[in-house]
């Protein structure tokens, strides 16, 4: 019986190996849309494979590490011309990915790719074209503006930075006021993430042009998360950032922009650790926010909300490769308790920006409804 079992296992493994080895990688590679001007590499093909080419003639080993934190990797092979070339072992998920290049143990960025702030450093970025990328494509529609603001922060004894998206036509109007979404990045990122990696402004522009949402302002600021090392999130203290957000940034935005300042017209959402911040701050300061969004960033339960002012909307999302059943169950439990709760699961993605782009695209039309 044992021999028979072993034989079956070996046959299955051989079949899987043979199937994988027979996968043909299409040679229709094209430069990534996130490459530096004029750079041919990295490249992606129609199947989602990525190919890298790094010049390091004196190196002994070159590996490309993909994903948040640089986990996993693709070992490159050296050519006679001093370039190291390699293709990922399988197709990557659609959307944006961070990566870096490890050369003989040192961590570097790919000189062929643009850089994006993630993993507490500026990382190289690559884009795997998505089948649904039209919703964040740059189109010939009216565009809003993303502007940098510096706001005073007595609690940190400095000026802090935020980026503010205002909808198309905001500057031409003189009296119209808008709802506001405070939108937080994840661990290792900063206030540039939602515009650069997430295309939040393009998502908004396209939804507004299609008449699918009520225009609103988005405010993005640094969540003060990166002082905490990966794995030590339980030690994160929310109070310093909560003070900056609630007592300093919100008053600044309400003073310098035409905003609707009541609770029902202010929302907070965040991805990953930004979701954790959203969860904690909305529970601590429910009088400030009327709608909540957790994007791969935890769950709400009816028990923790029962003594709070009722939220207009609770949105919970994740990728299908994360914890979709937990997200769906949390939303169902909230609905049974009488809350307007919505769950969303991004198909075939994990803890990554394609999940969060899609989540914002689903969340935005639900916000600030009468």
TrEMBL record:
GO MF annotations, alphabetized: acyltransferase activity, transferring groups other than amino-acyl groups
Signal peptide: 1-21
Transferase among keywords: no
CDD domains recorded: E_set_Esterase_N
Pfam family, one: Esterase
Keywords (A to Z) from UniProt: Signal
Coiled coil regions in record: none
UniProt keyword Signal, yes or no: yes
Protein name from the UniProt record: Esterase
Species of the source: Siphonobacter curvatus
